[in-house]
Amino acid sequence: MAVYKRSYRAYSGRLTPAWSRFFVLTRYALRGMFRSKFLTTIFVLSFFSPLICAILIYLNHNATILATIHARHNEAINVNGDFFLGFLGVQGAIAFFLTAFIGPNTIAPDLANGALPLYFCRPFSRAEYVLGKLCSLFYLLSFITWVPALFLFGIEANLSGAGWTWAHRSLAIGSLLSSFIYILMISLIAMALSAWVKWRIAAGALMLGVMFFLSGFGTAINAVLHSNIGFYINPGALIARVCSQFFGTESPIDIPVAGAWIALLIICGICLALLSKKVRAFEVVR
Amino acid sequence: MKPVIELEGLGVRFGKRDILKGLTCSLSGRTIGLLGPNGAGKSTLINTLLGFYQPSAGTARIFGYDIRSETKQIRSVVGYMPENDAFIANMTAVSFIRFMGELSGLPSEAALERAHESLFYVGLGESRYRKVGTYSLGMKQLAKLAQAIVHGPKLIILDEPTNGLDPPARQRMIRMIKEMREVHDLHILLCSHLLRDVEEICEEVLILKDGRIVHYSNLEAERSANRHFVEMEPVGDSAAFAQALEGMGCECALSANRLKAVLSDGMEIRDIYRLAAERDVQLRRLNYRRDTLEDIFLKAMETSSNGSL
């Protein structure tokens, strides 16, 4: 099928391993995302907070500067669980708004243009499709959440020495696990909404709406019933409860950790069920 | 010849409705036509062969791979051009085809090379850097064909490939399909409601109605079986010419200026021309007379069948 010959010929070259093909989807999805100048700007701005934190950590260990401002080590800031929880809270908010912007663009265009049969007529499954799209969001959000968190942990470890690193290893593990769970949850919510709401702006607005509505509704339930069961329908509260366990900090969300885990699993399960219903080559009209 | 598609009591049910009912046949032609009125189950059959729908009864095999258990193997040897719009709007054609090639397992460089080749082959070479979303309907059809062939499949399933094409584009599409047909080891399953397209391209035809097979026809075999029946338009002494043909063992019927003849065994067309030259008769027209696909299709629609061949 050479260009100059313009005749058909079969392909007889080597093939890539089947397990790696979902990365193709991830690669193309990321390329598509970074075509947006808005996303690129927000993505770059998301490194502002880690930069400030890195400077603060450095200053906390700089005796000259501490002497200048008449402060002692760990007096201005203390790099502990609360520090990382606060840092991930800020980064998580940025990640959430970024997901609300790009998430609706993951599946909706394929559905709108009928592209799904083209994916699934190839040796490429629906699970690989979802995994490929999920990985694109995971990759992007990782650079906003756990990657800078580990970077800050690395700086502090370098400045404080092996003793601090070993004593505070749970901060690194906590940052990693908290970010994974958070990214998984918001990515699945964004993808599920993208699969069901084809209009991108509506899907983005709905994502913000769902999170804020559930949060407000949960708070209202708590206030009316004088209980804590409202936290179970508030994804933000559930994540905060689970993260506080990882970092060993006190949490104002007064529900059992196991309950928070189950509620998170149910939310992820619902999202996967919604995706399974929509992500198929053709919808069957029964 | 090794069968390309084998159906063994294949049934598909959506809810309480049986869409395909116990289809059984074996197809081994290089170009197979799938015909039937709207709602006959053509697209459902294609989608089931591709593993999009699960069969409720029986099974089917493509190149020996079972559709129930070997879907991935089937999909790696099949190229599919869907009937409806199917594209990624914000990608250039070359990126789109390359992407599809990579998903089929081609390494990135090979996929790029074949994307260019496929687009030139289908006639979109000059507009390959345009976004697919800006293409006309005809160009989108061609882009769909390009993505179906980019990975070099052994079987190409074309669902209404000439939909929305103007006559020159349709001719070009048919020419391309015919050309692909000639490639060794490539098979084509063509689903179309345009009988002329199917007749021009296909060797075998499967006609479905209400989810059942109502007719199977090997057009190639029928073409050769009808070689002995010819229709001519002689100018000159037609009666004497007909008599001479009968003298050679043919059965003739002369009406107005048309002469129909069933040739005797061993007699060939050049014998007719020789006889016409000896008798000083001009032959303005000479056709093999056979049932057209339209005749076959209409007959099949009138016939009820039990669904198996």
Give a short summary of the structure.
The complex is a heterodimer of chains A (about 290) and B (about 300). Chain A is mainly alpha-helical.
Polypeptide structure, described:
The complex is a heterodimer of chains A (286) and B (309). Chain A is mainly alpha-helical and 286 residues long. Chain A is built from 14 helices and no strands. In chain A, helix 11 packs across helix 12 (200-225). The longest helix of chain A has 28 residues, at 169-196. Chain B is α/β, with parallel strands linked by helices and 309 residues long. In chain B, 37% of the residues lie in helices and 28% in strands. Chain B is built from eleven helices and 14 strands. A six-stranded mixed beta sheet of chain B has the order 6-7-8-3-9-10, with helices on both faces. In chain B, strands 2-1-4-5 form a four-stranded antiparallel beta sheet, with helices on one face. In chain B, strand 1 and strand 2 (17-27) form a beta hairpin. In chain B, helix 3 packs across helix 4 (108-122) and helix 4 packs across helix 5. The radius of gyration of chain B is 23 Å and the shape is globular. Chain B starts with a strand and ends in a 7-residue tail after the last helix. The chains are: A mainly alpha (286), B alpha/beta (309). Chains A and B meet through helix 1, helix 6 and helix 7 of A and helix 2, strand 6, helix 3 and helix 4 of B.
